[in-house]
Amino acid sequence: MYYYNKSSDANRESTGILATLRDSSDGKVELIFDDASSVPTLDAVSWSQKHLFTIKEFELDRLEKMDFTQAELVEIAESLLTRLKTLRR
Predict the structure, then answer these.
(1) CA–CA separation, 41 vs 20, rounded Å?
(2) Which of 2, 8, 22, 86 stands the most exposed, by the fewest C-beta atoms within 10 Å?
(3) Domain that residue 56 falls in
(4) How far is residue 70's CA from residue 16's CA, in Å, rounded to a whole number?
C-alpha cells in the first residue's frame, strides 16, 4: 500500500517516531519505536533518533505471516498516535 504525501518534508512537524525491527538473540523480533527530531538538510529533511520510546516483541514466524490479532494491531496504532500527539505539545 502506498500513500502519497501531498505536503513537502519542509511542512512536517519537527518531531516524530522512528520504527525499526531488530532480531533478538532468542529468535524473536523486536518492534522498536524511538522519538526522533528533524534535521534540516540541503535537499530534504533527515531524522535523528533522540531516545527509546517503546519495544514490543513478537515471534519471528508471526511477523513473517503477519499473524497479529486485531487487539495487537490496535495497541500498536494507539501507541503510535498517542506518542505523536504528546510530541506535538
Answers:
(1) 22
(2) 2
(3) 9-87
(4) 25
Q: Evaluate whether residue 18 is within a structural domain.
A: yes
Split into its structural domains, the chain has a count of 1
Within 10 A of 59 (CB to CB), how many other CB atoms are there?
Answer: 13
pLDDT in tens, 18-63: 899 999 888 899 999 999 888 877 556 677 888 888 888 999 999 9
* pTM assigned to the model: 0.73
> What amino acid occupies position 11?
N
Q: Is residue 2 part of a domain?
A: no
Distance CA 34, CA 16 (A): 8
Distance CA 30, CA 43 (A): 32
Residue 3 domain-assigned (yes or no): no
